[in-house]
Structures are given as structure tokens and as C-alpha cells.
């Protein structure tokens, strides 16, 4: 065989092989590569979105935590105010109750004093009448009269 024919046959076979590869092998390979590139790009984009969502979630979490701390502080402040109000109300009620009890006790004491005065008046009146009766029953002389007054004074 001739070298030229062999070379031409090899060149034709090579071109047929290239045509066959370009027509039947290359498109599925390119399609698979493009598909793989698209999957990788989608994965990278999804990873980037996930990273951004994670950052946003961290920011939202921090905002929620800050808001919760502020709310807790507000609740504690309100609870402290309410506790102070309750203490003040209890002090006022206790003071009013004490004043009422003191007023009642003073009124009772005044009533007892008035009752004691009335009793003493009645006893003094009785003693005065008894003294006058004794004076009138005896004869009226200065010595006897002075003795009777001393006796009445001693009884008072």
C-alpha cells in the first residue's frame, strides 16, 4: 500500500471520527457540562441566599431579643410601681384605721370621764344632802358645824 493512500484514509477516518463526535458525542457532553455548571451555580446562589437569610435571621433574632429585654424591663418597672402603690395604699389604710381607732378610744374615754363625773356629782350631792341632814339634826353651834364639815371633807 501506498503511504499517501494510507494518510488520506487516516485523514478521512479522522474527519469522520470528528464529525461523528461533533454530531453524536459532543452535544450530550456539552449538555451534561452545562447542566452541571448550572447546578453548581444554583448551589452557590442557594448557599449565598442561605448565608444572607442566616444573617437576616441573626439580625431579627437580635432585634427580638432586644425587644424582649425592653419589654421585660418595662414589666419590671410597672411591677415596681404597682408594688409601691400597694405599699402606699396599705400605709394609708393602716393610718386611717389607726386614726379611727384612736378617735374611737378618745370618744370612749370621754364617755367614761363624763360617766365618772356624773357618778361623782351624784355621790357629792348625796353626801351634801347627808351632811346637811346631819347638820340640821344637831344643834347649830360653830364647833359641831366645823366637825361636820371636816367629816364631809374626809368622805369626799
Task: Furnish the topology, listing elements before pairings.
Layout: H1 3-137, H2 142-155
Q: What would you say this structure looks like, in words?
A:
- The chain has helices at 3-137, 142-155.
- With 156 residues, the protein is mostly helical.
- It has one domain (3-155).
- Helix 1 (3-137) packs antiparallel against helix 2.
- The protein is rod-shaped.
Q: What is the arithmetic mean of pLDDT?
A: 87
Number of DSSP strands?
0
Radius of gyration: 62 Å
Distance between the termini: 175 Å
Helical element count? 2
- SSE arrangement, N to C: HH
Could you state the oligomeric state of the chains shown? single chain
Shape estimate: rod-shaped
- Sketch the major β-sheet: none
Number of domains: 1
Quick structural gist:
With 156 residues, the protein is mainly alpha-helical. It has helices spanning 3-137, 142-155.
Descriptive tags:
156 residues; mainly alpha; 2 helices
Amino acid at each position: 500500500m501506498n503511504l499517501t493512500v494510507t494518510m488520506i484514509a487516516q485523514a478521512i477516518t479522522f474527519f469522520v471520527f470528528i464529525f461523528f463526535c461533533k454530531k453524536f458525542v459532543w452535544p450530550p457532553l456539552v449538555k451534561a457540562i452545562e447542566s452541571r455548571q448550572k447546578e453548581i451555580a444554583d448551589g452557590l446562589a442557594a448557599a449565598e441566599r442561605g448565608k444572607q437569610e442566616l444573617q437576616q435571621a441573626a439580625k431579627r433574632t437580635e432585634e427580638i431579643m432586644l425587644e424582649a429585654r425592653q419589654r421585660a424591663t418595662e414589666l419590671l418597672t410597672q411591677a415596681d410601681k404597682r408594688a409601691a402603690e400597694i405599699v402606699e395604699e396599705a400605709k394609708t389604710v393602716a393610718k386611717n384605721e389607726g386614726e379611727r381607732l384612736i378617735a374611737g378610744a378618745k370618744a370612749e374615754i370621754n364617755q367614761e370621764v363624763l360617766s365618772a363625773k356624773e357618778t361623782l356629782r351624784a355621790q357629792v350631792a348625796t353626801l351634801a344632802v347627808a351632811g346637811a341632814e346631819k347638820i340640821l339634826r344637831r344643834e347649830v353651834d360653830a364647833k359641831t358645824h366645823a366637825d361636820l364639815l371636816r367629816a364631809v371633807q374626809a368622805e369626799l
